[in-house]
Amino acid sequence: MIYADSESSADLYYATRFFAPDPFLYLRDPSGRDHVVVTALEVDRARRTARVDQVHEWSRIKSRWQERHPDQSATTEALTLFLLAELGIQRLATPDDFPLLMADRLREAGIELIPESGPFWPERAIKSAEEIAHIEAALEVTAMGMQAGIEMIAGAAIGADGILWSGGAPLTSERVRGEIHARLVREGASPRHTIVAGGPQGADPHEEGHGVLRASQSIILDIFPRMEKSGYWGDMTRTVCKGRAPERLRALWDAVKAAQELAFERIGDQVSGLAVHQAVTDSMTRAGFVTGIDEAGRQIGFFHGTGHGLGLEIHEAPRIGGKDQTLLTGHVVTVEPGLYYPDLGGARLEDVVVVEAHGCRNLTRFPKFLEV
């Protein structure tokens, strides 16, 4: 059983393929039939679109409940207990984020709840052909946003002080992000926390970026929108430099690109994610870019995972990193090595691949280049 809204619960949307902004109830009965319980506001749409066996309406359950309990308040928890009794259900698996109040009330009434500590639907990690098509569509839209951002940077003029100018005003991370977001929204995607981090700001992998952008510095653009219609995410990172890149930045970018290409070669069915991650780390270390702690106590080098699963959540199973997980045919994962140094900034490149029987296939079509 799941009780949540399907716009924020990937598990609920995966089970029902029904988007709703307000919480509703999903359960699978002992015979394997899937049920949802929704309000009158949502019932007709749920009957048209939800991929379940039966759609119930709360008001109809309430009418039956009130015949037996005319003097009691019909809470969501009471109506849920009533439906479970009708279906003969006394034991349920729930996600580990199941609402506490409902859990308390069900347990008080004798229902056994078993929270799943791992993925609620482990099969979500293996993507169907339909899901892969949704992710590819999301990546196409992500590429449109990336193109809009890079074109704005490429079209900027370089001022005497190295600050980029566009439309008579300094070009800022905020302006580039706004241009990216406008394109994504027009294409039916919801952008979230897009990164446009220039120069030293790029040394923090999750710094969104702010203020003016400058020539001859790295600019990391990391775009990860969710498609409004399908619910699937895109994810892509590129690192560019307006004008001539310093020699060390070029070497940094080249090392990241070579490590990503090595990962593409290593990824495949039954391959250890840890082994891929270690190969990526070793590749950049051999190129002369060390990982560790600098004199100021800051992380430098490559200090995050090589990749993560992508689908109905921006980060889902499996991971390619320090905790070993075996890659399987049908996994869709990002490949995003990066290097970060406070005095220089950073460089990260991110594509999305699907694991296949004899390797992997890159679903990302956008080119990679440093200087614009």
Automatic annotation (TrEMBL):
Residues 134-356 form the Peptidase M24 domain. The keyword Protease applies. It comes from the Bacteria. Pfam families: Peptidase_M24. Keywords: Hydrolase, Metal-binding, Metalloprotease, Protease. PANTHER family: AMINOPEPTIDASE, XAA-PRO AMINOPEPTIDASE P-RELATED. Belongs to the peptidase M24B family. This is Peptidase M24 domain-containing protein.
